[in-house]
Amino acid sequence: MICLDYSSLQTDLRWWGFDSLTWRPSRFIKPAESDLTLEAGVGMAKEEEFLQPRRGAFVGWSEGARDCPGRKFSQVEFVATIVSLFRDWKVDPVTFEGETIEAARKRVLELIRTDSAMVLLQQMLHPERAPLVWSKR
Ligand code: HEM
């Protein structure tokens, strides 16, 4: 099984710039044409646009002929879910006895760094243990 290193690819300085590890959602927005251009009478004002990352630089939903057909759906669903949750709620790690909330946050961040792994899609781990036989009806 070969898995891409998504984190490295999607924070690669060559495609994402020196601040690739910074939370800056505006990097995905292409600003509207500048006022300067307008003053010079060149071109028309354009709305700001979603900046399509360079091909192959953002592959969370894969890319190419077999990429994810649920991409748009899940992106909209994701935003709706996050907004519904965080509009009225905030979340913190459960603190252990004697632990401060800052220490608990640090502990959880460390776990995210050291205790995460790539698992893509539901699958039988050992299909060879359940061999099937096809026979003509
Ligand atoms: C955050 C949500 C999602 C992510 C990150 C995601 C990601 C992906 C990725 C990476 C693949 C390619 C897998 C591979 O190459 O083996 C894939 C395939 C696929 N996804 Fe999604 N997906 C998401 C949500 C959805 C939703 C909501 C649907 C359906 C409504 C969906 C339907 C599919 C299907 C049918 C394929 C197989 C396409 C093919 O093999 O031609 N996905 N998805």
Structure, explained:
- The protein is mainly α and 137 residues long.
- The protein contains five helices and two strands; from the N terminus they run ααβαβαα.
- The chain has helices at residues 6-9, 13-16, 35-39, 71-88, 101-114; strands spanning 29-30, 49-50.
- The radius of gyration is 22 Å and the shape is extended.
- Bound molecules: protoporphyrin IX containing FE (HEM).
- Protoporphyrin IX containing FE binds at residues 60-62, 66, 68-70, 73-74.
Count of DSSP H/I helices: 5
Q: Look at the structure and give the mean pLDDT.
A: 85
The shape, in one word, is: extended
DSSP strand (E) fraction?
under 5%
Query: Which structural class should the secondary elements be placed in?
Result: mainly alpha
Distance between the termini: 34 Å
Number of distinct beta strands: 2
Strand order of the largest sheet: 1-2
Name the hetero compounds present: protoporphyrin IX containing FE
Low-confidence stretches: none
Largest β-sheet summary? 2 strands, antiparallel
Radius of gyration based on Cα positions: 22 Å
Q: H/E series, N to C?
A: HHEHEHH
Q: What percent of the residues sit in helical stretches (DSSP H or I)?
A: 25-40%
